[in-house]
Amino acid sequence: MRTATQPAGGTASDGFWAWTPLPPQWIKELRVLLPAWIATACPPALMLWEREWLDPILLWVLYFVGCVTLACLPFGHEFGCRTVASLLVQPATRRRLFLQKLGLLWAVLASVVWLAVGCGWVGAARDPQAHSLSAVGFWVLASAIVAGCTGPWLTLVTRRTVAGIVSALSLPGLIWAMTYLTLAVMAKCGLFPEASVLPLAPPVYGVAMAIYSVGLAVLGWHKFRSLEDLEVPSGNLALFDRLRRLWPGAVVQARPPGRHPVRALLLKELHLQQWTVAVFGVLLAMLLALVLAKRLFMGMRDTDVPPLAFAFGLILCLLAGSFTCTEERHLGTMDWRVAIPLPTWRQWMIKAGAAAGTAALLGVLLCLVPASVEGLVFWHLPQLPLAVLWWGGVAALWLTSLAALASSLCPTTLRAQITAVALGVASLLAMALLHDLLLIEPGAGPFLAGLFRASGLNGEGLGPVWEGILVAMLWTAAAFVQFCLGFVNYRHETDALRRLPAQGVCVLLVNAAVVVGIAALKARF
Amino acid sequence: MNAEKPAIQIEGLERRYGRAEAVRGLSLQVEAGRCYGFFGRNGAGKTTTIKCLLNLLRPHAGTVRVFGLDPARDEVGVKQRLAYVPDSVAFYPWMTVRETLDYLASFRDRWKRAIEAELLARFRLDPSRKTSELSKGQRTQLALVAAICPEPELLVLDEPTSGLDPIVRREFIETVIGAYQAGDPGRRTVFVSTHLIGEFEGLIDEFTILDQGREVLTLGADAARERYRRVCARFAQPPPPPPFDHVRVTRREGRDLELVVTDSAARVMEWLKTLSPEMLHAEALTLEEIFVATVKTGEAVP
């Protein structure tokens, strides 16, 4: 065993490190960030592809999501791979490990900012009216800085990438709403004229975000310095346990065996949705703050809340569906399904039902609670009950089924969400294109308008009730097929990921069939 | 190099998880060059202690020193001199075996490539395979290779043989650990936490038995074998119960009597001889039997 000692720092023998002069530690970090970097670079690059439906705000949102994902990955992937202990016992100071991770993260974020500003510059050169380079530069830079400062701490606290991402995405929105609410309250108290609220809001929000970002950046370092390798499932909020402790005298009692297995499974599934409930709480607080601010200060635009509530409802559907299987894989409890003496299809029905039910219930609450606080006066949509029914029912079912299908295919929640979004966007694009073709409405206008037409919620008045019911049935059938595909993966988990191409095509065909069905209905009647 | 300092020194260590006390006032000392066993049942606090030792957990009370250094303050100084194999080994799934070793080697000042090649060949690990394709046992083997190649002064092993097949387990314990320590006797220390006490029987110099977060017994292996003995006797008549506190009757059927003696075996033997046994013999307990006897009776620290 006695052999000559070789220096080892930074050596690389073969493999993909052979061609690069970078140290293996840097390569590892960059390898982790690379897929998210590509995804983050896409929205700015799409600015160069001028299309009517490519909304700059949508592109900015996607860019911000990408930046946040990048910021959460350096620590999130260590929790995901369960390599925290392995990293921390290496002979390097925590300061060095932290600075190395953060340094590479900021370098990658800088490259994305540079790319985005470059694309904005090209856009501004093409059309100075539509693109303001200074505005693009500010938002691009500010988004990257906020993400880079807040993502690490939130991931270190939640100990999970996806939890860090949803926290880092939802908290700026909550701060935005609280800023408006605080200013409205202060104006109401006579601290300054009401006319100053709207001009004051952006700089105050900017200061609040600066404090939030710097504070979380500092906390990030402190958290990493004192990081412990706890043997608990990462990302466990213990939300329901905390709620249960609020009940005085809540005692855990042994239940007689063999009774209410469905109830037990349902409770377990609801526990798996703890992050959906947590995000719902943040989003609801944000909407309520906005509504209250509006009540106090009528100068605010009153069209903000309903579209936000709809969008947030979609996010909840995506989260609820994506947690169905990946959360079990994360906890390592997926294999228990074979040991439970209950048919697999029933287990899947409970799983899918709990996810769809949670998404629908929370989505409806997200729409109704702010509306009831406001007294329904600012909801200009004439068909609000139907809209709520639509989002709470059909859309929730469809999107949750898609996310559940992705969850049954993918090993992690983050991948499931990306897959669900990709499948959903591809399906909706195919549906919108088919819709234009089949309903013989060439140049049917913006993409989203086409979707609303497909849903029956085009804001231009509804057709007969039976038509809406039939359309809803078609969508429900598509959701059912998606749930069935998810069941196939749930039952035969081995090599589920290999089914992705075939099942992706299947999803596209099923959703295309919905539009064909709608076209046939319209043509028939 | 603090050669005179103990490799590990723990004084009054306490660590809680919420209300649950994982380690309660543990104290132990491991001299350099020893192979130290750390035994205990599931949930006894072994892994928590090891994590406190490695600065992966912060103690709530007590002090921990490695080579006389505080792992929280002199983290690099400590970690440069030790290697750790956790109970649940994990690697980055996209890396190959080769890439994983290169990545881990990049943290070290020295890394013996010859030992690495030898161990990879011995364990039949293909360097081009992805770590995600390795079985649990193969991942443990890879972790062991990564722990031994930097030739640390202290090797901390937490359940190192779990998941290994019997052949590899034996090879690992006898050849790898044995050869590692023999490479620089007197300087290389092994601190091993394990359930498979029997497998490490020949290597352990000293051990501590932990139960419910508390130290139950600390002894040298030879002293323990000397002190803990199984005595079997057969008499013409059913014998009376032994009048000793430190004796546990493990079998008493008819004329046969089997005792586990935890101290003063000579006195017990004398007493048995006064009963004119037809057959009488005593043998040393194995470390595993000592562990079982100690934990079952909850014997206090001598």
Q: What key attributes describe this structure?
A:
heterodimer; A: 525 residues; mainly alpha; 74% helix; globular; B: 302 residues; alpha/beta; Rossmann fold; 2 domains; 6-stranded mixed β-sheet; 4-stranded antiparallel β-sheet; 30% helix; 28% strand; elongated
Structure description:
The complex is a heterodimer of chains A (525) and B (302). With 525 residues, chain A is an all-alpha fold. Chain A has 18 helices and no strands. Chain A is globular, with a radius of gyration of 25 Å. In chain A, α2 (56-80) packs parallel to α5, α4 runs antiparallel to α5 and α11 (305-331) packs parallel to α14 (384-409). Chain B has nine helices and 13 strands. Chain B has helices spanning 46-53, 75-79, 97-105, 113-122, 136-148, 166-183, 221-227, 265-273, 287-297, and strands at residues 8-17, 20-30, 35-40, 61-66, 82-85, 154-158, 189-193, 206-211, 214-220, 229-234, 247-253, 256-261, 279-284. The mean pLDDT of chain B is 86. Chain B has two domains: 8-212, 3-Layer(aba) Sandwich (Rossmann fold), CATH 3.40.50.300; 223-297. The chains are: A mainly alpha (525), B alpha/beta (302). The A-B interface holds A 1-17, 23-25, 28, 31, 77, 81-83, 85-86, 88-94, 226, 228-231 and B 17, 47, 51, 54-58, 75-76, 79-80, 82, 84, 86, 88, 90-96, 98-99, 102-115, 118, 127-128, 150-151, 179-180, 182-183.
